[in-house]
Amino acid sequence: MTYTLNPLLRFLQVYDDAAAKMGIRLSIGCDFNEYIAITASLADKPNTYPIFRPDRSPIRTGEGYWLVGFDKENKVALVEAARFYDLSQTTLAAHLETLKFFYANPTIDAHPEDRCVCTAQMARSITGKVVYHGDIWIRPDFRGSGLLKIMTGTMRGVSLAMWAPDFLCGLAGRWSLDKNVYDPVHNEPGGADIHLVQENIVANDWLFWMTGYELKQLLDVTPDLN
């Protein structure tokens, strides 16, 4: 990865500096037990998918990380997490529909009525080294402040540095497109129609994605944080 090292460091520095100007200190960790303890204290945050819960889907060292932002009073202002999947022998669609996307062992951990239906055509072409970004939460007083762009850019840079993935993807509701919340590079409906009974999670999400090539191309563009 030495061929991208200097541009990548500059890329990440831009976002770290922007966060600091807003009074936000970014912290990255790999212990998901700690992450769950942090997110459990956030009153208005939706349930964390089992993909990021080590009791349901243990994450081996080097296959996941999380980002937390703290304000000047050391209170949590944002969270997001990332997970790496080696899908060289399968596709994202198959990984979702077999529930292996969510659980280490669906036969044991999933409820008999759990289901996930993926009709997005692109999900059947997403394979190889795949990184999922999700569990995004920003404290209400920071929403609309530009902090989401900082968080997204930081996560993209860290994921590129760690894994140089073939694809980077996410799942989110149609409402996020209507409100232009995430501004994904590509999107398609039918990403995941999810019902996880024990997790109390029901969602009908679109698939967001970008290719590894598009991710690397970001290093050549000055980030727009306006």
What this model shows, in words?
The protein has helices at 5-21, 32-39, 92-97, 106-109, 147-163, 174-178, 212-217; strands at 25-29, 64-70, 76-87, 115-117, 128-138, 167-172, 186-196, 201-211. The chain is α+β, with helices and mostly antiparallel strands and 226 residues long. The chain has one domain (3-218): Aminopeptidase (3-Layer(aba) Sandwich). Helix 1 runs antiparallel to helix 5 (147-163). The longest helix is centred in the N-terminal third of the chain and has 17 residues, at 5-21. The protein is globular. The protein starts with a helix and ends in a 9-residue tail after the last helix. The model has no long low-confidence stretch (mean pLDDT 93).
CATH H-tier superfamily = Gcn5-related N-acetyltransferase (GNAT)
> Gap between N and C termini, in Å?
30 Å
What is the percent of helical residues?
25-40%
CATH architecture: 3-Layer(aba) Sandwich
Number of helices: 7
Taken as a percent bin, the fraction of beta residues is: 25-35%
Strand order of the largest sheet: 1-2-3-5-6-8-7-4
Mean model confidence by pLDDT? 93
Low-confidence sequence ranges: none
User: What letter string, H or E per element, gives the SSE order?
Assistant: HEHEEHHEEHEHEEH
Shape: globular
Q: Main sheet, how many strands, which sense, barrel?
A: 8 strands, mixed
Count of beta strands: 8
